[in-house]
């Protein structure tokens, strides 16, 4: 996964990573928000979900201590990271800044 993950975040296109867990109720809320963000952004950016229980080393590597944690990468660089549930407008605006 880490090789594939590195290829994804090295992209010229911004990538929003949703670090989540299947048992996390706020993560389910965040997931539906991300569906709307994807509609707003279209092909301008990618949104990828990473299950922290399946990929704990990846979560640890990026300092994920709670879920949901969202991070935006572009060209391999982490541009933004925050934990908690975020609304559609905030995330859409954030991604548009990096397009």
Gross morphology is: globular
Ends distance? 25 Å
Q: Which CATH first-tier class would you pick?
A: Alpha Beta
Q: Remind me, CATH topology?
A: Glutaredoxin
Strand order of the largest sheet: 2-1-3-4
CATH superfamily: Glutaredoxin
Count of all domains: 1
Q: Beta fraction of the residues?
A: 25-35%
The total strand number stands at 4
Specify the number of helices.
Answer: 4
Q: What structural category characterises the helix and strand content?
A: alpha+beta
Largest sheet: 4 strands, mixed
GO molecular function, one term: protein-disulfide reductase activity
Site (Contributes to redox potential value): 25-26
Site (Deprotonates C-terminal active site Cys): 18
Keywords: Disulfide bond, Electron transport, Redox-active center, Transport
Describe the structure.
The structure is a single chain. By secondary structure, this protein is an alpha+beta fold. 41% of the residues lie in helices and 25% in strands. It has helices at 2-9, 25-41, 56-61, 88-97; strands spanning 15-20, 46-51, 69-74, 77-83. Helix 2 packs across helix 4 (88-97). The longest helix has 17 residues, at 25-41. The mean pLDDT is 96.
